[in-house]
């Protein structure tokens, strides 16, 4: 798939494509192309992730693609979501406590 990029009147690099005749908004027809590794892109991904109520990779990427096309987007979203503290906290497993050895008093016969 080729992106068929073009510069719009604001100097933004946008995705061309086959949606020219559709009734969608300009931003949805021609999403902005963003690099995969940039601080601003990480912030945009984080905002989309929190707006989707900490949904997974696919839902976050779908939400982002309504307005942006991130190069190698699936890997970029995965990288940012891997560092989400709220998601890490939700996925934590309870700590498994080890039982201590019984004291000698409790294991020996005393009559």
Automatic annotation (TrEMBL):
* InterPro entries linked: Integrase_H2C2
Highest taxon of source: Eukaryota
**Any idea where the Integrase zinc-binding domain is?**
39-90
- One Pfam family assigned to this protein is Integrase_H2C2
Protein known as:
Integrase zinc-binding domain-containing protein
Organism equals Trichinella pseudospiralis
């Amino acid at each position: 798939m080729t992106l068929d990029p073009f510069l719009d009147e604001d100097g933004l690099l946008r995705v061309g494509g086959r949606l020219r005749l559709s009734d969608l908004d300009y931003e949805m027809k021609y999403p902005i192309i963003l690099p995969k590794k940039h601080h601003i892109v990480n912030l945009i991904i984080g905002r989309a992730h929190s707006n989707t109520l900490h949904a997974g990779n696919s839902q976050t990427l779908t939400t982002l693609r309504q307005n942006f096309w991130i190069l190698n987007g699936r890997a970029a979203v995965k990288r940012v979501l891997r560092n989400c503290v709220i998601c890490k906290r939700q996925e934590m497993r309870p700590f498994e406590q080890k039982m201590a050895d019984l004291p000698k008093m409790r294991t020996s016969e005393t009559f």
